[in-house]
Amino acid sequence: MDVNYENTRREIATDTGILRYHEAGDGPPLLLLHGSGIGVNGWRNFRGNLGFYADHFHCYVLEFPGFGVSDPVPGHPVLTAVDSVVRFMDALDLDSAAMIGNSMGGVVAVNVAIEHPQRVEKIVAIGGVGHSLLAANPSEGTRLLSEFADHPTREGLLRWLRCMIHDPKMITEEIIEERWSAAVEPDAQASLRAMYGSEALARQQQFLEHSPTPPYWSMLHKVKSPVLMTWGADDRQCPTDMALIPLRQIPNAELHVFPRCGHWVMYEAKEAFERVTLEFLHR
């Protein structure tokens, strides 16, 4: 099968809207869950890796609600993404699956594992999971996202993209144009504001200070599936010290740090990332 956009594109109806996704390969099921950010979706996150994993797994690249592809639903994007994974698996009769989650996608995967442990076989998390103990909070990347969410400009997009990658030469004009075109889509703008707008960040801080519900990272001891955390040593969106809490709290967790690499590990350290994660998934 030629693993391209058109050949892999699918959609499925659920009780709360249509979920769109990309499907390729044969073998055990593997869900690829995208991150947040400017102009993001599942295809853009994983199109460079899908062909590799499709040689070993039956892959599903799920598009979360609110990012301009699947039908939007009310609620915070992280919470609706967790619900969408369960809805998606139910709709396709997937009892359980391994999951690769980029940043927010990793957070979504561990939350599914906390709430529905029987549905998650293994997790590969690309940054994102945990809570920063040593670095500035919010991080440089989050501050740039907040600035863009409040006042979207092409220059703001470029500043954020350069923050995602260790090697600036990897930020091509094609990537800039593609992300800018997607970022001005209304659903994508609304989702970005809901997560990173200055008002949203202020509300999240107030919620953390006064909520009776503990943050998800304090419940990581409930994750029973094996977890491989992958991190770029030069990640300016999610600094590497975030990995300390999950590394201690998750009973079966391990960490691999890639040198000279930023937040987009699956893109910037593609071959090494695929090799390390395939060994973990096959183990």
Short synopsis of the structure:
The chain is of the alpha/beta class and 283 residues long. It contains 12 helices and 8 strands.
CATH architectural name of one domain: 3-Layer(aba) Sandwich
Distance between the termini: 26 Å
Report the average pLDDT across residues.
Answer: 95
Order of helices and strands: HEEEHEHEHEHHHHHEHEHH
Compute the number of strand runs: 8
From the spread of the alpha carbons, the general shape counts as: globular
Main sheet properties: 8 strands, mixed
Fraction in beta strands: 15-25%
What is the CATH H-level superfamily of one domain? Alpha/Beta hydrolase fold, catalytic domain
Biggest sheet strand line-up: 1-2-4-3-5-6-7-8
Are there runs of 5+ residues with pLDDT below 50, and where? none
Q: Class of one domain in CATH?
A: Alpha Beta
GO molecular function: monoacylglycerol lipase activity
GO biological process, one term: acylglycerol catabolic process
Protein name: Alpha/beta fold hydrolase
Keywords: Hydrolase
Structural description of this entry:
This protein has a domain at 5-134 and 215-282: Alpha/Beta hydrolase fold, catalytic domain (Rossmann fold, 3-Layer(aba) Sandwich), CATH 3.40.50. It has 12 helices and 8 strands. The chain has helices spanning 5-8, 42-54, 77-91, 104-115, 140-150, 154-164, 173-183, 186-196, 198-210, 244-249, 265-268, 270-282, and strands spanning 9-14, 17-24, 29-33, 58-62, 97-102, 120-126, 227-232, 253-258. Strands 1-2-4-3-5-6-7-8 form an 8-stranded mixed beta sheet, with helices on both faces. The two termini are 26 Å apart. The model has no long low-confidence stretch (mean pLDDT 95).
